[in-house]
């Protein structure tokens, strides 16, 4: 996606990984989408997206939030939620668990919330 930083892109890639047709459509959206704006909240960020009109859409609104990050300088880890509205990628939120967002992103490791499982995919139908 145009405009995302290294962490945001890695998170989006992990959230959209898999063979489910909804994930395939969302990955296709992501290839032509762009970052419309980024807001920092003090404990995280919101990335709002613009998705081109020609991109395939999905049928329902939902969110995916099964990716976590371990990051230098963040004691309790980071969570993420990808929001899908009106059939399109809408927003990616990243948040800490009750501590400030780091001023600099150095190294990070991503994982699924439940080791080896994507329980969130049941929402896709």
Describe the structure.
The chain is of the alpha+beta class and 125 residues long. It has one domain (6-124). The chain is built from 2 helices and 7 strands. It has helices at 6-15, 21-32, and strands at 34-40, 44-50, 62-64, 67-71, 74-85, 88-96, 108-112. Strands 1, 2, 3, 4, 5, 6 and 7 form a 7-stranded antiparallel β-sheet that branches. The protein is globular and about 40 Å long.
Task: Describe the structure concisely for a colleague.
By secondary structure, the chain is α+β, with helices and mostly antiparallel strands. Helices cover 18% and strands 38% of the residues.
Quick one: how many beta strands? Answer: 7
> Percent helix among the residues?
10-25%
Topology pattern, helix = H, strand = E: HHEEEEEEE
Number of helices: 2
Q: Which consecutive residue ranges, at least 5 long each, have pLDDT under 50?
A: none
Mean pLDDT: 92
What is the radius of gyration computed over CA atoms, rounded to a whole number of angstroms? Answer: 14 Å
Tell me the count of domains.
1
Give the topology.
Elements: H1 6-15, H2 21-32, E1 34-40, E2 44-50, E3 62-64, E4 67-71, E5 74-85, E6 88-96, E7 108-112
Antiparallel strand pairs: 1-2, 2-6, 3-5, 4-5, 4-7, 5-6
Keywords:
125 residues; 7 strands; globular; alpha+beta; seven-stranded antiparallel beta sheet
